[in-house]
């Protein structure tokens, strides 16, 4: 063995079996800082996930034709994103009102274009949600099978625009909408089956509303 090799081997042995005092004085990786950094990173990540605004603007750019080309599950995902964005907006508005003077400056509102675009998105989601429930059942031949469509819109502006209603001073929780008027909102409500098609058979649908959350439910019947 050469002198150089012997020296290296001795050095390795010295490092492997260094006395405790030497081992303590030897520089070691700073584990604690790394751990803290990971914690900070995790904390930052959680904050971003929880509070970062959802990319709603691209969703508002969808036209009814764009939505018609999307798979149903993707439309539902977009719908959920809009709901999440709305809830965040309401939460921020409530916090701002509580911490401020409560003046109208903290109230969130949309311009007419945003309201119209969002109403179109929700109308398309309603159409997809209702037609996807249309499956053949024996009851379709007689009384009809029940469907239910639920949703939450960002504010009263979008709600009234979506259902082509005039805002009223009196708070109401339920209205009847003729089927022809409802299909002007959603588009045709029918689904193909092996020997024909299914469609909404109710002459009118019931619009149930929760004014506090701007949530709504639309039940009805479908059949042959």
Walkthrough of the structure:
The chain is of the alpha+beta class. It has one domain (53-98, 105-223). Helix content is 51%, strand content 17%. The protein is built from 9 helices and 6 strands. Strands 1, 2, 3, 4, 5 and 6 form a 6-stranded antiparallel sheet that branches. A hairpin with a 2-residue loop joins strand 3 and strand 4. Helix 6 (72-99) packs across helix 7 and helix 7 (112-131) crosses helix 8 (156-162). The longest helix has 28 residues, at 72-99. Residues 7-26, 28-54 and 101-107 have low confidence and may be disordered.
Short description:
Residues 1-55 are annotated as: Disordered. With 224 residues, this protein is of the alpha+beta class. The protein has helices at residues 3-16, 20-25, 31-51, 56-60, 64-69, 72-99, 112-131, 156-162, 179-186, and strands spanning 145-152, 174-178, 190-193, 196-200, 204-210, 215-223.
